[in-house]
Records
---
Amino acid sequence: MKTGVQYGLEQARAQLPLLVSEAAAGTSSIITRHGKPCAAVVPVGTLNQLTAQKHRSAGVLALRGTGRGLWGPDSSAAVGALRHEWESAQSVG
């Protein structure tokens, strides 16, 4: 992805077709307001990649901390109880 030039908001508004053509050709443009970057016009492929990355990392990170306290202070006792329950169910079935 190539980074193009920065455009002020009014200039970007006046040259929007150019910004879109540049994005279609693979070049990103930054739009500024009062000299500070506030938006970007990027190729759709770049947006799709960023969105996919966000979704991949969010899936695992969303689970962080959800098992805290699940097993208590001694996880071996909890796992042992689950194994016993499983073995009992297997011998009945």
---
Amino acid sequence: MFPQKKKTYELIVEKIEELFLNGGLKPGDKLPPERELASQFGVSRTSVREALQALEISGSIEIRQGGGSFIKTPEVRMVSDVLSTRIIEAENDLVYEMLEVRRALEVESVSLAAQRATSADLEKIRQSLEQMAASGEDAEEGVQADLHFHLQIVEATHNQLLINLVQTLTERMEDTIRATRKHRFLEGNRYKDTFEEHKDIYVAIASGNAQEAKKLMEEHISRIRRELSTHFSPTLR
């Protein structure tokens, strides 16, 4: 039986992802039946079913009615997800610090962007928002659109030192965005919630409402920290 540090279905998801990473599963392979997986992992069939549903939502497998479950995700995406999770779990303190840095930099950046953004800046932010909407359940496209959205806001500050500083943190920002989206989207209805959060920030910037933009960005990053804390170590609180 798995140790109950996380929800059982999440641990099953990780075990299946590790099988893929280690070469035990390949794209197109059929997973064993629920009953066999339950026996293999020492869990209930309900937990296995929840894990398979989570993998389907993330785009990792395809569940065919009456035909079983098949590995669907291209190797690069699943490997990226697994490695990102391992990095985050191994470096909780660093992630916590990164979220504090993001709050300090992005809350001020969005305020400046609301005051300084040109029509060209607003168009770039809007395009990132459209890319986010168009990405749907494509995890990697969603991550890149999300990251691009935040970077374009910083660009709209027209503060070159701030822009350069944030650019040095891009990889770590991407890590936090990928981990957050992965776990948030285990619930299928959260795609719309995430899009609406970003849309509200854009509207505040476009309307020149610096205070509202700051408030929304603060809430957005605080929500990220809360959601990550439910999936990783209790120290991330």
---
Amino acid sequence: MQQFQVPQFINIEDQIVGPLTLKQFLYLLGGGAFVIVTYSFLPFFLFLLVGLPVATLCSLLAFFKYNEQPFSKIIFSAINYYLKPRLYIWKNIPPPAHKQGEVVKKIDAASVPTLTESKLSDLAWSLDIKEKTKR
């Protein structure tokens, strides 16, 4: 009988560049390139307004995890939450209150079908026969 080696730790990403995974490296590379471009082309005040938030976002995307979930998944879930409609599985709606002046409509007894004793016994007998014949 052949033996096969079962892979271990398949949910951990491979470290490609030093201690960084490929995603972390690309986030930091893109953020660093954007910061360098903004630093070289914009005045220092605008660089602080634009470059630092982008650098912070890229470092959060690369390293921050909340409840073992990466920050990119948290952002994606937040965007979906705000853009998609909510689905209420159960929403309790209280019955409408009747005012004192309103008359509640009553159902006439004539409109409700009634079962006679013979119809009821016929139905019970037919169900009993069907149950016994299935066995």
